[in-house]
């Protein structure tokens, strides 16, 4: 049983305000045994507050963050800016991969994503089991 858990991510965050997307993504995550724990934040501000709490006590930050761009209160872009400013680079490099998940097909968004080194990929909604399998394939086995 232990071997089966190796590719699984310990902690994943979904930062998105769309309840249908969240529900569907969590179901697919369960089907592909994506992560041990999934936390959902409906905007970047809530996620940033939790991130700051974790950093304050030097707790592990999530291994994978699925980030929507268009949300109320704090957009995905604003979250990325704050994330990059708050998290030490060594912590990002070792621990966290962010995937932008958006229904936007605006080429400017695709270009802008490349400016953020922490963003590992851009996934068009809706997310598929294959998308999650690809992400799992990029996670180092510990």
Give the helices and strands, then pairings.
Elements: E1 9-15, H1 19-31, E2 35-41, H2 44-56, E3 64-67, H3 76-86, H4 89-95, E4 97-102, H5 107-113, E5 119-124, H6 129-138
Parallel strand pairs: 1-2, 1-3, 3-4, 4-5
Helix pairs in contact: 2-3
CATH superfamily membership: Response regulator
Structural class: alpha/beta
CATH-assigned fold name = Rossmann fold
- Unreliable parts: 1-6
Number of strands: 5
> Largest beta sheet, briefly?
5 strands, parallel
Instruction: Compute the number of helices.
Output: 6
Q: Estimate the mean pLDDT confidence.
A: 87
Radius of gyration: 14 Å
- How many individual domains? 1
**So what's the overall shape?**
globular
N to C succession of SSEs: EHEHEHHEHEH
Strand order in space, largest sheet: 2-1-3-4-5
What is the CATH C-level name?
A: Alpha Beta
CATH architectural group: 3-Layer(aba) Sandwich
CA distance, first residue to last residue: 15 Å
The helix content, as a percent range, equals 40-55%
Share of residues in strands: 15-25%
Q: Could you explain the architecture of this structure?
A:
- With 142 residues, this protein is of the alpha/beta class.
- It has one domain (3-137): Rossmann fold (3-Layer(aba) Sandwich).
- The protein has helices spanning 19-31, 44-56, 76-86, 89-95, 107-113, 129-138; strands at 9-15, 35-41, 64-67, 97-102, 119-124.
- Strands 2-1-3-4-5 form a five-stranded parallel beta sheet.
- The longest helix has 13 residues, at 19-31.
- It is globular, with a radius of gyration of 14 Å.
- Mean pLDDT is 87; it is low at 1-6.
């Amino acid at each position: 049983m232990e071997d089966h858990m190796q590719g699984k991510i310990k902690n994943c965050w979904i930062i998105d305000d769309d309840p249908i997307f969240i529900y569907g993504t969590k179901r697919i995550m369960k089907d592909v045994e994506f992560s041990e724990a999934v936390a959902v934040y409906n905007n970047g501000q809530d996620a940033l507050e939790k991130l700051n709490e974790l950093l304050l006590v030097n707790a592990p930050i999530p291994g994978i963050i699925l980030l929507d761009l268009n949300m109320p209160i704090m957009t995905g872009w604003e979250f990325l800016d704050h994330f990059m400013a708050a998290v030490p680079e060594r912590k990002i490099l070792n621990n966290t991969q962010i995937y932008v998940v958006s229904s936007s097909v605006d080429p400017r968004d695709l270009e802008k994503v490349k400016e953020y080194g922490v963003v590992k990929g851009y996934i068009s909604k809706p997310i598929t089991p294959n998308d999650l399998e690809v992400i799992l394939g990029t996670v180092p086995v510990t």
